[in-house]
Amino acid sequence: MFNPVLTDEQAALADVVRQLGERAIRPILHDGGRATPADLAGVWRDLYEMGLTAPVNAEYDGQGRPDPGTCLLIAEEIGYGDPGVAYDLVSTCQAALLIEELGTEAQRTAYLPRFAHDPAFSTGVAYFEGFGRTPQELGAVAKRAGEEWRLNGRKVGVTRPSEADVLVVVTADADSDQLAVFAVEPARCTGLEVARDDAVTGKLGLDAVKTGCVELREVRVPETARLSSHGSDSTRTHRAIAALRLGVGAVLLGTARAALAYAVEYANTREAFGHPIAQYQGVAFPLVETDSEIDAARLQLWRASETIGSSADDVAIATSTAEAISRCQRAAMEATRIGINTLGGHGFIQDHPVEQWYRAAATLAALDFDPLESDCGVL
């Protein structure tokens, strides 16, 4: 049964993760800086030591895998500290999840212990294309060629594209109506190119994570690279992909909370006409409404997580996921906009971090944009 109340263990974990973000990330943002991967290397090490970067079960030498609700909670709290770090974390965790859920025993044995033991092991998921929810909509395709597969397409928002030891690539099977997922080692194949390094070309947001656009041009991988331990069990694949997307939704909620909390603090200390501006309805009401919308979006996100865990209907999984993501996008875009408006002219300058959260929310919303569900106006 769906229960939105946190357990004592979840509440304690949320506090620890939130404090990590406030201690290690916020000082950079409050100094008017933009957190980069180099700045936050220590944060990643702390997350690794806590077992949060590699949700691997004990049989593969990990510290255990949290339940889906706890994973969303962790993503939101890290997103509260910095959405870039959180997006990196979600991508890494979901790479491990996809391998564990869909991979053969040989694939699990080959990769999962590396997640658990090697903090330098670099990975990510190549899924997003800016659109596409079903195999029929994804532009990246995989076609069998004898004992090999040939992958073609373009992926955006790929984490660590230039340094990944393994990328989990999600494509559509050209010969069926199913998704085909592969564990691709860039060093062992040709045709996988980083078409755009976002740090070089300029980024709207998510400065703390290395992202880029990856081109797949006749990338040849062996049959053993396909994550196919369950054959044609499409539901298991759709559940795993939905978990990735919901994780990004949780990051959006963390970003929204960060902007709202900063705006509330500012409104309580900034005075106009002899009173804190929070005492004026024109300032207070939008903040209260935003807080309620964030809570509503979180409930829908958690409900969607429960749905994908129990449903065997691929359409129901995709629909509930898309609706929850859209709700989180709207909440984050509105919260960060309200944050900027509350600060007035100060909201647009780098002296305050709300403009960074606004850009991060827009970037995350654009990654998983569904025009049939979303009306947050980010494109």
Automatic annotation (TrEMBL):
InterPro entries: Acyl-CoA_Oxase/DH_mid-dom_sf, AcylCo_DH-like_C, AcylCo_DH/oxidase_C, AcylCoA_DH/ox_N, AcylCoA_DH/ox_N_sf, AcylCoA_DH/oxidase_NM_dom_sf. Residues 7-116 form the Acyl-CoA dehydrogenase/oxidase N-terminal domain. The keyword Flavoprotein applies. Keywords: FAD, Flavoprotein. GO terms for biological process: butyrate catabolic process; fatty acid beta-oxidation using acyl-CoA dehydrogenase. The keyword Flavoprotein applies. Its cofactor is FAD. Pfam families: Acyl-CoA_dh_1 (PF00441), Acyl-CoA_dh_N (PF02771). Residues 240-364 form the Acyl-CoA dehydrogenase/oxidase C-terminal domain. One of its GO terms (molecular function) is flavin adenine dinucleotide binding. It comes from the Bacteria. Belongs to the acyl-CoA dehydrogenase family. This is Acyl-CoA dehydrogenase domain protein. It comes from Amycolatopsis methanolica 239. The gene is fadE.
